[in-house]
Write a structure and sequence with these properties.
Order of helices and strands: HHHHHHHHHHHHHHHHHHHHH
Radius of gyration: 31 Å
Largest sheet: none
Strand content: under 5%
CATH topology of the largest domain: Na+/H+ antiporter like fold
Length: about 525
């Protein structure tokens, strides 16, 4: 009996020990966690119908409806403040009213174009929607009667937009990339632009009956490539690893800024020749004088901005961006006021390039502020350009002749780009891609196209017909090449360029290493 009882007691002790093991494992903290989890689940179950109800019925409104109402009230208050300051200028027919209508119409046009998404097709640039919005505002009878912007206002705004483009071009120049790709970059930035300018002068002389000086002026308007289309597309390819091994995205980003510099310089020189009253020799000498003054002043101001403000000050990017913007806008607008038309742009480029070499990595903060400023002026620029084109003023055969001239000059540019990229280590397919991606036109055409028209209206009304054709060609060049160029880059890039790395695989490898 004693043995059996002891055995039973021993078994009871084992059972008690085994029963206590899970009790030990289930600590009070864990029990508390389970209880809190149960309470959270019960609370979420209780609150789910309430949140679903609040999604359907919310007072005051939330989300997109709240955003629409807020932006609408902000726009109304901007109008009220301007009305209280300027009075009739913000009423229909006034300059501020016209600018506000064009600005908001261009913003809406750009947003609507961004909403158009076609599967396996890259998105279209929003600047195309801005351009079409301005065109619609001008050519709808009821709206066009009340939307009027004085030429002086539009000229100042377009020149300010040109200044911001030049600032971004100067800050975007990478000295190291220029050193590594200096031969190909110089060929790609100067060759296609000059060849297209000469081709456009030749074809416009025989097809559109332009004088030679007007032909070259038109050629430099058409000769610039658009960084607003090329740079974002190339950055997207670079992020996905296409063409990185041979530096194709870096090459095209750097060359696009230099290409614009060549086009703007050539345009200013042709403008001074076309509208000058003296001889050709005196005009060329005055252009050389303007170039020398612009480069010298730009170097001096660039060295000044390198050291002022100093690196120990607070809000350094904001102060540098303010100095750069104020100096460059003053240089561009002031040089035109005193008659040194070619000096302002070169001064801006030299100032920003020299200042950017000293700032190195700190340059990114200044570039962000400048890009935010460009986001304000971009709708105004393309909206105003679209509003300059009137369907009623176009002749029946003008559009066909303009498209023929532009197409022939563009074919010459594509062929020249293909030839100039030879012996640079690129394959046949890569040269085709570079040639086709070097065709989009937008920002520089939007700025330079109306300049000749405004100058002719003021100083030479008998030349207004030529300048209006230049304006029409600039509009058509943006309308045709900007979307097609973006589509060519987005569709052909992944198919033609070799992929150096896959970003998704790199992210998976990094996450795998973090787990280990």
């Amino acid at each position: 009996m004693h043995t059996t009882e002891s055995k039973n007691e021993h078994l009871d002790d084992k059972n008690s020990q085994t029963s206590t093991i899970p009790q030990i494992l289930i600590t009070p903290d864990r029990r508390a966690q389970e209880e809190t989890a149960e309470t959270v689940l019960s609370e979420t179950k209780e609150t789910k119908p309430q949140t679903e109800k609040s999604k359907h019925i919310s007072c005051p409104p939330q989300g997109i409806l709240n955003l629409i109402i807020t932006n609408g009230v902000m726009s109304l208050m901007i109008w009220c403040v301007m009305w209280s300051v300027s009075g009739s200028e913000v009423l229909p027919g006034g300059n501020i009213f016209g600018l506000l209508i064009i600005f908001y119409s261009a913003l809406i046009g750009g947003k609507l174009l961004q909403l158009i998404r076609i599967p396996s097709v890259p998105p279209l640039p929003p600047l195309l929607g801005m351009l079409l919005a301005g065109f619609i505002v001008r050519n709808v009878p009821f709206i066009s009667n009340h939307v009027q912007v004085h030429t002086t206002w539009s000229s100042i705004l377009r020149n300010t937009a040109l200044t911001i483009i030049l600032i971004r071009a100067g800050l975007g120049l990478d000295p190291q990339a220029l050193k590594n790709l200096k031969r190909v970059c110089l060929r790609l930035s100067m060759g296609p632009c000059l060849i297209e300018a000469c081709s456009a002068a030749f074809f416009s002389h025989f097809i559109m009956k332009f004088p030679w000086e007007w032909g070259f002026l038109l050629g430099f308007v058409l000769g610039a490539v658009s960084p607003a289309v090329v740079v974002p597309s190339m950055l997207l390819l670079q992020e996905n690893g296409y063409g990185v091994e041979k530096g194709i995205p870096t090459l095209l980003i750097a060359a696009s800024s230099l290409d614009d510099i060549v086009a703007i310089t050539g345009f200013n020189t042709c403008m001074s020749i076309v509208f000058s009253e003296g001889g050709v020799i005196s005009t060329v000498l005055s252009s050389v004088r303007d170039v020398f003054i612009g480069v010298l002043v730009g170097i001096i101001l660039g060295i000044f901005v390198q050291y002022f403000p100093s690196g120990d000050q607070q809000k350094l990017p904001s102060k540098r961006a303010f100095l750069v913007l104020s100096m460059c806008v003053s240089a561009v607008l002031g040089s035109q006021r005193i008659g040194l038309h070619a000096s302002g742009g070169l001064c801006t480029l030299m100032l920003t390039f020299i200042a950017g070499t000293k700032w190195s990595k700190e340059k990114i903060g200044v570039q962000k502020i400048i890009s935010n400023t460009w986001n304000i002026f971009q709708p105004l620029l393309f909206g105003l350009v679209g509003s300059e084109v009137s369907v009623s003023a176009l002749e029946s055969n003008t559009i066909g002749i303009c498209v023929a001239t532009m197409s022939l000059a563009l074919c010459a540019r594509i062929l020249a780009t293909f030839v100039l990229t030879s012996f640079a280590g690129f394959s046949f397919k890569e040269r085709i891609f570079i040639a086709l991606s070097w065709m989009p036109k937008a920002t520089v055409q939007a700025v330079l196209g109306p300049l000749a028209l405004e100058t002719a209206r003021v100083s030479a009304p008998h030349l207004e017909s030529y300048s209006r054709d230049v304006m029409t060609l600039a509009f058509l060049a943006i309308l045709v090449t900007a979307p097609n160029g973006a589509l060519f880059i987005g569709l052909l890039g992944p198919k033609i360029l070799t992929r150096h790395y896959d970003p998704t695989e790199i992210k998976l490898q990094l996450s795998h290493l973090e787990h280990h």
